[in-house]
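> example.struct
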């Protein structure tokens, strides 16, 4: 199951896994785009609507899913988006990139049997997380800072999810991936002038969608310990063969991860559904 699989890295990830004979579920906001992507896949695929900017859509999606899920890939996201709030009033980067996936994962977790992969980014290294103002209502809105915060949140979520999975005795793994620079439509999602200029500048330096998907596929299929972070192996981590890398110091802060988890539970009205051992 791959969120945002109608285009970009999500579509390339779906294509790679379908070519390996996986049955792929494309969880997409735009059904027409999802169906077009599914029609181009070499194996079995189905399309279901999921809008991560609307928690009611997340709940409906999870409630309607009747089967086990071997692999959940939290891939969808926005970058350089204007500050238009989500349906639930969240800042769009934090709401879509983090909170939507947080809720989806917890709601589906009783059915997940293998692995949860969350797509972060090298930009998380510039991120700071203000738990008193995660929606950036009390400071000037800077799209890249909001994006970087959400990508940091993705890694903190992965770390705390793995801690909880281990404490519950679950064999499910949580890993994260950094796609590096890839020529996708992510930067133009918000439609801002800054996004268009940034996209134009970075596109000549970027790898293909398929290149960007390699770290996600590796995080999904390689023999890895939980909470592994996979990035391109090049010097700048913008391209190259996938390898295990170390995220920023902030992304490795267990107390920050726990506080973010508690805040995310209150914002989404979802909780970790598996029983934890005493003292965990």
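> example.seq
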């Amino acid at each position: 199951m791959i969120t945002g699989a109608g285009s970009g890295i999500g579509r390339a990830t779906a294509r790679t896994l379908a070519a390996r004979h996986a049955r792929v579920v494309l969880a997409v906001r735009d059904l027409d785009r999802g169906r077009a992507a599914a029609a181009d896949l070499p194996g079995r695929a189905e399309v279901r609507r999921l809008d991560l900017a609307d928690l009611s859509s997340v709940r409906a999606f999870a409630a309607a899913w009747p089967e086990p899920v071997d692999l959940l890939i939290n891939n969808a996201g926005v970058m350089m988006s204007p500050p238009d709030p989500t349906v639930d009033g969240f800042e769009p980067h934090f709401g879509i990139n983090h909170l939507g996936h947080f809720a989806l994962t917890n709601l589906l977790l009783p059915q997940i049997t293998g692995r949860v992969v969350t797509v972060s980014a090298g930009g998380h290294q510039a991120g700071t997380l203000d738990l008193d103002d995660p929606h950036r209502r009390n400071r000037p809105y800077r799209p890249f800072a909001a994006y970087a915060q959400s990508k940091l949140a993705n890694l903190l979520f992965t770390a705390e999810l793995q801690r909880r999975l281990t404490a519950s005795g679950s064999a499910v793994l949580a890993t994260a991936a950094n796609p590096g620079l890839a020529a996708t439509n992510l930067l133009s999602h918000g439609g801002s002038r800054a996004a268009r200029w940034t996209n134009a500048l970075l596109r000549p330096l970027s790898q293909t969608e398929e290149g960007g998907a390699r770290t996600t596929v590796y995080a999904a299929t390689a023999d890895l310990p939980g909470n592994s972070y996979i990035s391109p192996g090049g010097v700048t981590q913008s391209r190259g063969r996938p390898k295990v890398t170390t995220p920023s110091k902030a992304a490795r802060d267990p107390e920050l991860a726990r506080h973010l988890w508690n805040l995310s539970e209150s914002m989404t009205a979802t909780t970790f559904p598996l029983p934890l051992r005493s003292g965990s």
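> remarks
The chain has a mean pLDDT of 91.
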